[in-house]
Write a structure and sequence with these properties.
The complex is a heterodimer.
Chain A lengths: L3 E6 L3 H4 L4 H8 L5 E7 L5 H14 L3 E6 L2 H14 L7 E5 L11 H20 L7 E4 L3 E5 L3 H12 L3 E5 L14 E2 L4 E2 H14 L3 E4 L2 E9 L2 E8 L14 H5 L3 E3 L8 E3 L1 E2 L11 E2 L5 H5 L4 H5 L12 E7 L1 E4 L3 E3 L16 E3 H8 L20 E8 L15 H15 L4 E6 L9 H11 L3 E4 L2 E7 L2 E8 L4 E7 L1 E6 L1 E3 L3 H8 L26 E3 L9 H19 L3 E4 L4 E3 L9 H5 L5 E7 L6 E7 L9 H5 L5 E3 L4 H10 L1
Parallel strand pairs in A: 1-2, 1-3, 3-4, 6-7, 6-18, 7-10, 18-29, 20-27, 21-22, 21-27, 22-23
Antiparallel strand pairs in A: 5-30, 8-9, 11-12, 12-17, 13-14, 15-16, 19-28, 24-25, 25-26, 31-34, 32-33
Chain B lengths: L1 E4 L2 H4 L4 H14 L2 E4 L10 H5 L1 H13 L8 E2 L3 H16 L1 H11 L9 E2 L1 H17 L8 E4 L9 H4 L10 H8 L3 E2 L18 H17 L4 E4 L2 H9 L1 H8 L7 E3 H8 L17 H6 L4
Helix pairs in contact in B: 2-13, 4-5, 4-6, 7-9, 10-12
The chains are: A alpha/beta, B alpha/beta.
Chain lengths: ~650, ~290
């Protein structure tokens, strides 16, 4: 016969003000199996836990119910306490009388009655509990890092420095990501390349780090400590071992197409490296545009390569590797401004995006650092920035604030004034959001020292008239309509999830929000963990982040990875499914409903007939205990340890 | 394809040519129109400025009388159109308002009769491919600036058919289908000042002047409109604008239905083109359209 103890927590006034805890403790004392019950002000405090220990010993309790907050908050606390007392930690049930009772009710009498009922249900469940034991899983101490921007680079450096192996998989032909496209960085105005390229070189030279560029992760299976990953190394058409990066091939290549890296403002060749400091300095051939691949002719690059590195026959290679942890650093993309037809993005050449401005102002960019009108190449004497294009606009863009645009607008406007001292820079803004070290001061500097003119209000229309751009908008501070004639318009577009973010999330089995940004396990207390153990998040794939925040989350994600790698084994929750073969018909409907691929076909010998039959079997290390199989099975063969059918039915019975 | 038709007061008076040309163009396209029996004033401006319930009672009274077999009711005047759509949305959402309307005028109306603009019908329902097939006299060489004004596409949750509220293109697409040359200009949805036409005529003149200036700068031969208020501001006041600003605009302001009619080969008189203050006669002659 079970010996149950019930511990009712006041949680100060959180529960105590709405639930009569003393009365609850008295009434539940008479429930079946209960040998002890009490109430206490803070059960999770040290004296509260000592009280539980004492009661376990004095009343020889073999299982307990704690009626307090949500199990997601303190279940681990109480489990650890049970273990201290020599009990199995799973002989615990929590009745949530805070979030699901006191916090949502005002009638004390009714809330007290409800608390008693909730506790009775927990009692009925714990009475059927059986001791469970955590499984031990070995850990493969290698980290896969998806994305080779500043986020992935920093994470790889941190993991490598700790002596563990890291593998970066980057889709583009080079690492460096968005940061490599930037000119200077706010608020210190140090040049992005100057601080990024040393890190790119460092990570490339790190013996613990392997970099696959022009590659993509194709498939991920497995679980924490043991992810099986397929990586597609796309054919570069250049043998990286032979290539010296001399550049003769791309100098001689006759095919010019708009450069993605330069945001279409300049050309690249069909065989190319995206920018001079690319790592690795090995070109790729864009087979879509290459004359040889389209017509079978040309082949100049192959002829001029003294190393014989150009290899038209190269094919994609798929490699399969095992990793213990995955760091997702896939970054962001920019909102397509064509949703705002009235701003003329994509219609007028002299309406450009912030990222295009970044390339233009960069001295090694397509215009050698000259800020020009793309329509005719003349120097721009005036520029109007339109902030929040897509941000904070749920009807056309995203509801959230993209967080760094205020800063980069101030930076770009300031740089414009440095490049064109007699020019005029204007910025239409909604609010200035400059929270960050030295940020507000930086915006002030742009306004006060550089004379950038800030207009608070939205722009209604941008159009071309008499060879100039005309920006019409509201200045809400002076309460007037304004019309500014300008050479250049910069649309400060929102930062959004990449187009294929959902595919990546599905491949990894991690959740995403309505904007397709990856969701943290807890926005405050687990900001770099995904809910899938062993998969960590960093950078702008979670939400728009500036460089300091991106680097901070990268180091945080690597710290979490290293904590994992510091164990030979990790423990896994035993709350998983188990299929009773004698009840299983082998229909495999459970397998179809399993989101983790944790159910496989298996053979079982029926003891009565001695025949071998096909049955479903749970792969314990992969199962998450979600319960889908339990509700799918018609014959009730699966059961979840710690949430067994017997336990649930008992609960329902007393409810 | 058959619709009910609500002309409203404007189309029986100042915008008679919109009435004439809508009927003629629809007849030419083969879209049936049958005028709603015993229709009443839509209440635009005066009703909704004074009594909210009155602003719903008037449209409900008319809409309740619409033939339920029709595909919907075609409402050319943009003020009527807007008021009807607002009442439809309000009545669909609010049972109490439906009860109030019923006790006021004794009609049961759920807000379900589709209220459509003739531009929407031609572009989205009838379809531009079908229009193209009917064109017998392409408007070749006619530079048309499409002017949508404020209400046709806004507010989008009430009025917008399948078009961009800030940068609508349906009238431009129609003009192209009719063989005209479309002027890409930025003042498509500017305010013409209609609501201030009588109280602050100076403002209405300035706003309409700006629109005419931009159209002239972009070498438009005419401005196509879909709203009687826009039409009267730009057309009737054009002479006053010229006097005030020392300009010499001579830009005909035509309804899009008149353009359809011309392209279908209907005589300008049947389309009411002779009723405009800025007479398009010379323009039509120059472009060999009359």
């Amino acid at each position: 016969m079970a010996r149950i103890g019930i511990f009712v927590c006041h949680c100060g006034t959180n529960i105590g003000a709405t639930v009569d805890c003393e009365r609850v403790a008295e009434e539940v004392a008479g429930l079946p199996g209960v040998v002890y019950s009490t109430a206490y002000k803070y059960m999770c405090s040290d004296p509260g836990q000592t009280l539980i220990s004492k009661a376990i010993r004095e009343h020889d309790l073999d299982r307990i119910v704690v009626a307090a907050c949500s199990p997601s908050l303190h279940e681990p606390t109480y489990r650890a306490w049970l273990e201290n007392e020599g009990l199995n930690p799973y002989m615990l049930e929590m009745a949530n009388i805070r979030e699901q009772c006191s916090w949502v009710h005002t009638d004390k009498e009714a809330a007290t009655e409800k608390a008693i009922r909730l506790i009775d249900m927990a009692r009925a469940k714990v009475a059927q509990a059986e001791p469970l034991h955590a499984m031990e899983i070995p850990v493969e101490r290698r980290a896969l890092i998806i994305g080779g921007g500043i986020s992935g680079i920093q994470a790889a450096i941190d993991v490598g420095m700790a002596g563990y192996e890291a593998v970066i998989v980057e889709r583009e032909p080079t690492i460096g990501g968005r940061m490599a496209q930037f000119d200077k960085t706010f608020p210190t105005l140090d040049c992005a390349a100057c601080i990024l390229t040393p890190k790119m070189v460092a990570v490339a030279q790190d013996k613990n780090v392997t970099i696959h560029t022009h590659a993509e992760v194709e498939e991920v299976s497995g679980y924490v400590g043991n992810f099986d990953v397929k990586i597609r190394l796309r054919a570069r058409s250049v043998d990286a071992d032979k290539c010296t990066g001399c550049g003769t091939c791309w100098q001689k290549c006759p095919t010019k197409v708009p450069s993605e890296f330069d945001q279409g403002l300049g050309p690249r060749k069909a065989i190319y490296i995206p920018f001079p400091q690319a790592v690795p300095r090995v070109p790729v051939i864009d087979r879509e545009v290459c004359i040889h691949f389209r017509t079978g002719k040309c082949g100049i690059c192959q002829k001029v390569c003294e190393q014989g590195a150009v290899d038209f026959e190269q094919e994609d290679i798929i490699i399969e590797e095992k990793f213990g942890a995955i760091i997702v650093a896939t970054g962001f993309t920019n909102f397509d401004a064509s949703a705002y037809g009235e701003y003329g993005g994509g219609k007028y050449e002299n309406v450009i995006t912030g990222l295009q401005f970044e390339r233009m102002v960069n001295s090694s960019g397509p215009t050698d650092g000259h800020i020009v009108c793309p329509s005719d190449g003349r120097e721009a004497k005036s520029v109007v920035f339109i902030q929040c294009v897509g941000s904070r606009d749920k009807s056309k863009g995203v509801a959230y604030c993209s967080r760094l645009c205020c800063m980069y607008t101030a930076k770009q406007a300031l740089l414009f004034k440095e490049h064109v001292p007699d020019g005029e820079a204007y910025s239409f803004y909604m609010d200035i959001r400059a929270a960050g070290k030295g940020y507000e001061e930086f915006v002030r500097k742009a306004q006060e020292d550089y004379g950038v003119q800030y207009l608070r209000g939205r722009v209604s229309r941008v159009f071309e008239h008499d060879g100039q751009m005309v920006v019409r908008g509201a200045d809400t501070l002076s309460g007037s309509q304004v019309e500014i004639k300008t050479d250049l318009v910069v649309l400060v577009t929102a930062l959004i999830a990449r187009e294929d973010a959902v595919d990546v999330a599905r491949m990894l089995g991690i959740p995403y929000d309505q904007h397709h940004l990856f969701t943290e396990a807890h926005t405050k207390l687990a900001p770099v963990e995904s809910v899938t153990r062993g998969i960590f998040l960093t950078g702008a794939c979670q939400s728009p982040k500036d460089i300091p925040d991106t680097v901070a989350t990268a180091s945080a994600a690597s710290a979490k990875t290293l904590a994992l790698f510091n164990h030979d084994f990790i423990t896994a929750e035993p709350l998983i499914a188990c299929i009773e073969p004698s009840l299983c018909s082998g229909c495999m409907a459970c397998s179809d409903s399993c989101p983790f691929g944790a159910i496989e076909e298996s053979e079982w010998t029926d003891p009565s007939t001695r025949k071998k039959v096909k049955v479903a079997r749970v792969v314990e290390s992969v199962c998450h205990g979600c319960g889908n199989c339990v509700v799918t099975c018609r014959s009730g063969a699966p059961n979840i340890a710690g949430f067994s059918n017997e336990q649930i039915f008992e609960q329902v019975e007393v409810a | 394809m058959k619709y009910a038709y609500y002309p409203g007061c404007s189309l029986h008076s100042t915008a008679k040519e919109f009435d004439m040309s809508t009927k003629a163009a629809f007849r030419g396209l083969g879209i049936g129109l049958e005028e709603v029996q015993d229709w009443v004033c839509c209440g635009a401006s005066s009703a909704h400025m004074t009594s909210e319930i009155l602003s719903h009672v008037l449209p409900a009274k008319t809409l309740a009388g619409v033939d339920r077999d029709a595909k919907g009711v075609v409402v050319p005047c943009i003020a009527c159109y807007s008021r009807f759509r607002i009442t439809n949305a309000a009545l669909q959402e609010d049972p109490e308002l439906r009860a109030q309307v019923k006790s006021a005028v004794g009609v049961t109306y759920e807000g379900k009769i589709p209220v459509v603009h003739p531009l929407d019908v031609v572009v989205n329902d009838y379809g531009l491919d079908a229009v193209r097939e009917k064109v017998s006299k392409e408007l070749t060489g006619l530079r048309v600036a499409s002017y949508y004004g404020c209400l046709l596409t806004r507010p989008p949750e009430i009025n917008s058919f399948d078009d961009d509220p800030e940068n609508p293109t349906s009238m431009d697409d129609l003009a192209t289908a009719l063989g005209a040359e479309v002027v890409d200009w930025p003042y498509k949805t500017e305010c013409c000042g209609a609501s201030l036409s009588f109280t602050r005529t100076d403002i209405a003149l300035r706003l309409s002047h700006d629109i005419l200036t931009m159209a002239a700068d972009e070498d438009a031969d005419c401005i196509a409109v879909a709203c009687p208020m826009c039409q009267s501001n730009l057309d009737l006041r054009q002479r006053a604008i010229n006097r005030k600003y020392g300009t010499s605009f001579d830009i005909p302001i035509v309804y899009f239905t008149q353009l359809i009619g011309l392209a279908l080969g209907i005589a300008p008189r049947e389309l009411g083109l002779h009723l405009h203050s800025v007479n398009p006669k010379n323009l039509l002659k120059k472009k060999a359209l009359a």
